[in-house]
Amino acid sequence: MAAQFFSSLADNALLVVAIALLIELHAPAYLTPMLKFVFVLFYVILAPFVGAFADSMPKGRVMFISNGIKIIGCVLLFFAVHQYLALAAYAIVGLGAAAYSPAKYGILTELLPPEKLVIANGWIEGLTVASIVLGTVLGGLLITPAIADALLAIDFPFIDTSMEVSIFVVAIFYGLAVIFNLYIPDTGIDHRILKKNPLFLLHEFSHCVKLLWTDKLGQISLAVTTLFWGAGATLQFIVLKWAEVALNYSLSKAALLQGVVAVGIAIGAVMAAKLVALRQSVRVIPLGIAAGFVVIAMIMVTDLWIAVIFLVLIGGLAGFFVVPMNALLQHRGYILMGAGHSIAVQNFNENLGILIMLSVYAALVVFEVHIYTIIMLFGLFLSLCMILIRKWHLLNQSKEDSLHLIGTKERMHAR
User: Per the structure, how many domains does the chain have?
Assistant: First the structure.
């Protein structure tokens, strides 16, 4: 939990710092969401391989290696003098995150029985969201001129600018995560030997994708989490732009509002962990429908405190419905294919959703669509998708009930 907290804290602080770096390099506006795009790109490209990698050795060792890659990305970002070099460096951090993710979630299914997964996910998501809150706050503080200048006055060796000192501080937090990684125990689970043939891994991964999408509960939970993470990544940038237009906020202040959404997610996650059992996970889908309409209502908000209430509510609804669905997905995936492979399939689908939704958002920015129009389209899309997923689940249930009824009648006829 400590390793996950510090690694995620650094991830979120680095995003704010990287956005500020692009602004300093006079990058066009559409490159800002592209930061997240390149970050998650490796989640999709390496999905067939990172799951097998995570299952091939103790999860703590996987997390140690992955955080080391993130530190390398920070070093490259430190020396970035062009906007595309900055994107490439941030993509390396994404490579580390892609390798890290199957281990950080997969270890839960190795340590705990199924009935504890919702509670465990509540703790992990709660800490992750706390790291998002503090990470965005940290990133916002690091790019504040007064604080950056104060840190620069410490006179670190080889550091000459406020942007360099900000990146250096983020790298320190990655270093803390690496230290905690060393103390994660081996769970005693037998690890699969990593196959060296990439074609075999691709075939195995495609089989795992098919297994999860054809499973009646797996497909619903995967559809929900894919939509949630795609929408969540896009909402990060929508909130930044909305705060600039509606509240006249700078980047450092707008970053704090991202943290407000994360507070809501933490509250929702904790409530879900206490109130929702694994077998009741699909009952929370209507909250996703409501979240879309609450997002639309943001266009009427111009007061800070009303904005805070709305953002906490949006986060709370999201956290309450995604934590049970995430636990259900982990449980079904663990049963069908193993922890690491399951999380890799989940990451592939969720980050493909992020790539698609961020690409659409970047295109809207290029065509200079007003942020209020984007918010309206975003909210309607979210609610409509959740309505369709709910109908999909009800259709699955009706088919199962029909098959059960037919089987009962056949048994009675046989008697």
Answer: 1
